[in-house]
Every structure is written in structure tokens, then in C-alpha cells.
Amino acid sequence: MLVIIFCVMMSSLFNGLCLGLIALDVTDLRVIASCGTEHERGNARKILPVRQKGNELLCSILLTSTLANAVFTVLVDDHVEGWVAAIVSTLIIVIFVEIIPCSVVSRYGMIIGAKTIWLTKGVMILTFPLSFTLGRILNRILGKEISMYTKDRIKELVKITSSYTKMEKQEVDIISGALELSTKSAKEVMTPIEDTFMLPLDGRLDFETISNIVRSGYSRIPIYDGSRSNIVSLLFTKDLAILDPDDRTEIKTIVNFYNHECLFVQEDTMLNNMFVVFKEGKMGHLGIVYSTEYIMNNQRYYDATGIVTLEDVLEEVIKSEIVDETDDVLDNRSKKKSSMVRRRQMTHCLDLFLQDNEKSNVCISPQLRMAALQFLSSGMYRVFLKIERL
């Protein structure tokens, strides 16, 4: 009778371990061993070396469980004859070997597996000649067990478990956005060339042009030659620091002096690659998106269709628009006006200070007009803000 009870216990234990240990994914165990609680890390580190021998572990457990069931059936048949033995052995195996162990181990598989790891290792040693051989054969036929998470699975895992892990929606969006960078191209997020603030190469940096640059709020201005799709250089706002608007300096002169190199990227360039280029900073944080390139007179030309900036890439990561005080629209797709634009439109009367001297009754210097404009803008801001709230 004691032998029968021992066989039932062994069969029950290893039948449960077959479900509990094999169901534990190697990748999950590595994650738990690195960032779980202290108790979970200890259990995962005990199980991981054994679980990595997947097919060998499976064969050892099944051999032991099958042997225990066979011995149990023979012993029951010796004590009970006929169909009664079949019914008794079936009920005992179903209840005490299948149902109870599987239901318990399905919830506490890691704890039970860690507590009985010494027994599992002992069984693997005893069955080594057969289990090792069968495991190698299975590895050769089925291949080694590979567990991995794709980007889509990780993204869905974060979304599904966010309510249980108390993750903020912004955190979930950032993780999802970062995983989606490699699936979005520069063409999808670029600012179209027709909506881009640009200056012609043959233009002059007079007071009106510099005022337009300042009011645009951009730090880098694309320069085109002839057609807007033919961008040849960039003009940095800081390049204007020492210029006198009265000199009406040619844009071409400033461009040739500083010679800022443009970063040209194809429309199908993925945003993860764009982020790497922008992060290095060697070519700046603005890229010219082009559809085709061609060579004429040993000179390479690009048919520009838009521009993409580091801000555009970051907006895709956080899945939200970054709006500052100089943005005219909230995003490039909906063209929805920014509230800052509506506030600036209330101050259109101040643009009178930017009129040409020849059309004004009172002649004042451009510098004085700019100073007056800035003073009145800063002084009237609170007034307009109160009016807007009414």
C-alpha cells in the first residue's frame, strides 16, 4: 500500500511539474530573474538552468511520470481484480494525478518548481542516458526552443497590462511610439514643401526679410534656387546676428560664407534611422526629404518634397504634437490653427510698424520700429489675454 501511495505522489508531482516547468518561458524567467521581487528572482534563477534544457527536461519528467503510473497500475491490479481495478486506477489517476496537480501548479508553478528543483535535477541524472538521447533527437527534428517577443507583441502586452501595472497613458504612448518608429517613413511626418517657410537664393536680407524670419520663429531656413523643390542650402537665424538690415546683404553671400551642408533623405527613410542621424548631430536636426535625385553637369540635384525635423520624430515617439509659441498649426495633417496664432492675429495692428518708410508719414529707423513693436507686444500681452478669456 505504501508503494502505491508513493507511486501516486511521484506521478502527481511530475505530472504537475511537466505543466508547471515547461509552461514557464525562458525569456520570461530571464526577465523575472532581472527585475522581479527578491523572492521571484531567487525562484527564477533556480529554475532557469534546468528549463533551458527544454526537451531533455520534458523527457525526464515524462519518463518518471509514466514509470510511476505503470507501477501503480500493476500494483492495483494485484490487489483488485477485473473491471474494478480499471475503475479504481482510472479515478485515482484522473483526480490525484491529473486534475489536482494541474490546477495547483497552474497557479504556483514557479514556487513549486523552485522548491522541488533538487528532485527534478536528481531525476534528470537518473534518466540521463535515455532523456539526453531523446532530447537530442527532438532538438534535431524540431529544432531548439526559441522564445521571443516581436515588437507588435510587446506593444500589445504593454497596452493590455497597463491597467494592472498602473502605467500612465503617456508612458504607454511613448513605449508604443518608440516601437513604431521603424514602421513609419519620413514622407508620413514631413512638412510639405508648399507649407515650408523658405527664402530664395537671389533674395536680400533687408529689414522686411529679417522681420519675417524673426516672426516665423524658425532657427533654420531652407534656401532654394529657382524652384522651391531645388533646395541648395540652409540659413541659420544666428547667422543674422551681425547683419545690418540697411546693408541689404544678398542671401547668396551669407549662404556661401557659412556653407551649411544640407541633410537629404529619401521619402522611404524610416524614422528610427532618422532619429539615429539626428542624435549624432553631425548633419543637424533638419532633413530635406526628396523623391528623386539626378545629376546635371556633374552636380547632384534633389527634387525636394518636404522637410523633417527632430521635433517631428519626437512627436511620433510621444504620439502628441509639440506646440510652441511660434507654431501656426497644431499638426501638418489637420492644419488646425494654434491658439497662439489667434492671439497673434489680434495684434495685426502692430504690423503697421513694419511698413515701408516711403509709405509712412513719419520716418523712423527700422531699429526703432522693431524696438517699439517688441515693447508694445510685451506690454499689451496681458490685455489681449484678458480679452480672450472674456
TrEMBL record:
Family: Belongs to the ACDP family.
Localization per record: Basolateral cell membrane
Superkingdom to which the source organism belongs: Eukaryota
UniProt domain CNNM transmembrane: residue ranges: 1-171
One biological process term in Gene Ontology: positive regulation of multicellular organism growth
Protease recorded as keyword: no
Transmembrane region(s): 12-33, 82-105, 117-138
Keyword Transmembrane helix: yes
Principal subcellular localisation of the protein: membrane
Pfam families: CNNM
The entry's keywords: CBS domain, Membrane, Repeat, Transmembrane, Transmembrane helix
One GO cellular component term noted in the UniProt record for this chain: basolateral plasma membrane
UniProt-listed SUPFAM superfamilies: CBS-domain pair (SSF54631)
Protein name (record): CNNM transmembrane domain-containing protein
Topological category with respect to the lipid bilayer: Multi-pass membrane protein
